[in-house]
Amino acid sequence: MSKVHVLDHPLIQHKLSIMRNKETGAKEFRELLEEISMLMVYEVTRDLPTEEVEVETPICKTRTRMLSGKKIAIVPILRAGLGMVDGVTKLIPAARIGHIGLYRDPITLQPVEYYCKLPDDSENRELIVLDPMLATGGSASAAISFIKQRNCKSIRLVNLIAAPEGIKRIQHDHPDVDIFVAALDEKLNEHGYIVPGLGDAGDRLFGTK
User: Fold this and answer.
1) 106 CB neighbour count, 10 Å cutoff
2) 102: number of Cβ within 10 Å
3) Which residue in the list 46, 57, 108, 120 is annotated as catalytic?
4) Nearest alpha-carbon partner for 115 in 84, 85, 77, 154
5) What does the alpha-carbon distance between residue 13 and residue 11 come to, in Å, rounded to a whole number?
6) Could you tell me if 3 and 179 are in contact, meaning their C-beta atoms sit under 8 angstroms apart?
7) pLDDT tens digits for 71-98?
8) Measuring CA to CA, which residue among 164, 106, 156 is closest to residue 130?
């Protein structure tokens, strides 16, 4: 079963509380989402492997540690996931960036991929999938499935806020994918919005309705 990591650092919780406020405007919302994403990826990458290397300081040579093993790619789910990219790349500037876009078929109600562009070597990278909200989990699960179809195996899902329903869906469909969230909220309402949540992240991020 995939693990759920709730990153309850005081700075994350403080900034998330401001984002939840309905009076917070699009500019501040974007800035806070970027900041929280940067704080979260610090924890998401805590277990990345390192190797011992030799460097020469202004004083002497010494043995220290640097990242080793798989390189990283980040994959925002369009469109709200775009708001998390800059925060992640501030800490991991060498990360490659892919994109995946989905829409729901009005007849079958199933997610349909309309865009997917991943780095050529994604199957050899650690993939971090970004989406602020994990509500029903349908879109995130579909996005991960489409990514796996391209032979990618090492995947982590990062969400700002999740509902129990979304967590359950990912754990059922993708038990190999760990989930990192800043908050695990109460439930979904009858319209599929997370309660208490923060509304539609994409609309608040881009100032649309």
Assistant:
1) 6
2) 19
3) 108
4) 77
5) 5
6) yes
7) 999 999 998 999 999 999 999 999 999 9
8) 156
Contacts for 97 with CB less than 8 Å, ≥ 6 apart: 73, 74, 75, 76, 85, 89, 119
- Does the pLDDT at position 189 exceed 80? yes
Q: Catalytic residue at 108?
A: yes
First to last CA, the chain: 37
DSSP 175-206: TTSEEEEEEE-SEE-TTS-EESS-S-HHHHHH
- What is the predicted pLDDT for the residue at 107? 78
Longest CA–CA separation in the chain, Å: 68
Paired tokens of 208: 């649309």
SS3 call for 73? strand
* Cα–Cα nearest to 110, from 100, 102, 118: 102
Catalytic residue among 104, 150, 176, 208: 104
- Cis before 175 (ω within 30): no
Active-site residue flag, 178: no
Whether the bond into 65 is cis, omega within 30 of 0: no
Give me the mean pLDDT over the 6-29 stretch: 96
Supply the pTM of this predicted model: 0.92
Residue 200 a catalytic site member: yes
